[in-house]
């Protein structure tokens, strides 16, 4: 009788051997087979080489973009680089009737302060110029 407290029959010796052969087959598959097809050392080295080349390409691209950004940020021929990047509507100076505002580093100067500065042709842009000209 097989009641609640009955012991299970012992497995035959053949079952242990078949479990071991399944284990061996799984391990062989896990480590890439006998020849080391896909996951052997050669495959891993190839993947590492591909990754290294991809990193080198990305590093070169980043350096190229950094140089391009720096060249775009540096003014070439004074205000010409800035004027080239603006559309023509922003290049015209405001007329005297318009209320002009200029923003420098986040500080807004209204039109009443602007006449005290020259055009910058005879002086630097930051030096005050007398309104008598």
Describe this entry's structure for a reader:
- By secondary structure, this protein is mainly α.
- Helix content is about 45%, strand content about 5%.
- The protein has a two-stranded antiparallel sheet.
- β1 and β2 form a beta hairpin.
- The model has no long low-confidence stretch (mean pLDDT about 70).
- This is MAD3 protein.
Architecture blueprint of SSEs:
Elements: H1 13-30, H2 41-73, H3 80-85, E1 102-104, E2 107-109
Antiparallel strand pairs: 1-2
List keywords for this structure.
single chain; 133 residues; mainly alpha; 2 strands; 5% strand; elongated; MAD3 protein
Provide the low-confidence segments as ranges: none
| Strand/helix succession | HHHEE
Which class best fits the helix and strand makeup? Answer: mainly alpha
**Average pLDDT rating:** 69
Approximately how much beta-strand content do the residues carry?
under 5%
The strand count comes to 2
Distance between the termini: 121 Å
Short précis:
The chain is mainly alpha-helical. The protein has helices at 13-30, 41-73, 80-85; strands at residues 102-104, 107-109. The mean pLDDT is 69.
